[in-house]
Amino acid sequence: MKLYRIIFAIIFSLTCSTVVQAKELTVMISGGFMAAWETLAPQFEAQKGYKIHTISGPSMGNTPQAIPARLARGEKADVVIMVGDALKDLEKRGWIQSGSRVELADSVIGAVIKKGVPTVSIKNDDELRTVLLDAPSIAYSDSASGRYISSQLFRKLGIEQQVKSKAYKVERIPVASLVAKGKYSIGFQQVSELLPVKGVTFIGELPDNMQYTTRFAGAVVSHSAYNDGATQLLAYLSSPDVQPVVRSTGLHSVTMQHANIMSDTVQ
C-alpha cells in the first residue's frame, strides 16, 4: 500500500510539473513596446494564469541580442513583438506562423536632452535644423527610428554633410541613457523608449512633416508549442481595454482603419 502511495505521488508530481510548463510563454520583445509590456504582461498573467518569460532585444541590427539573431541560432520563443517591417522578414524566413500577425501600436520619434541644460524647441523644421546644427553631438538608435534619422531626416533638412561627423548610432541600449550621462548632447528614438529614462528632458516629437511612424506588431513563433496561449496574449495586447495603458507610454493606438490601410512604417 505504501508503495502505491509513493508511485501515485511521483505520477502526481510529474503531472503537475507538466501542467506548470504548459502554462509558460516565452516572449521576445523590442524596446518600443517595452514600457506598455511591463504593465500589461503581469495583468495577463493574473487573468489567464500563464507565466511569462521575457527576452528583450532590438528588432533589427547586427548585435547578438537582436531578435532575428536569437531566432537564427535556435533560441526558443512563443511570441515576438517588434517593428512591423522586421516582422515581415521573419515571416519570409518561415520563423513565424503565417496569419498570426496582430497590429499592436504606432510609435513616433522624439528627442531628449540632458536634464538641467537649457531647453530647446523642435516644433518646426527651422527649429529642428538649428538645434541639430548647434548640437555638439547627436545620438540615434540602431533600430527603425535611427535608420530614418541617419538616412532620411538629415537629408530632408539639408544638413547631412554638416552633421555627419557628429552623429552616432547607439546599439542595443536606450539612447536616452547615454544622453543622461552627458555622452551625447541630444538623442533621438521612439518616444516610448525615451520617456522611461531618468536624467533627461523630453523636448518633443519631430515636426509632423518630418515625422516617421513605426508600426509595432506581434506574431506567434513557428515552433511554439503553446499556440492558444500565444494567440490569447496577442489578442489581449491589442484589445480596447488595454489601450489607455498603451497610450500612456507614448504610443498611439492602432485603429481598425489604420490597421487596414497603413504600412508597417510610415514617413
Automatic annotation (TrEMBL):
Residues 1-22 form the signal peptide. Keywords: Signal. It comes from the Bacteria. InterPro entries: ModA/WtpA (IPR050682). This is Substrate-binding domain-containing protein. It comes from Mixta hanseatica.
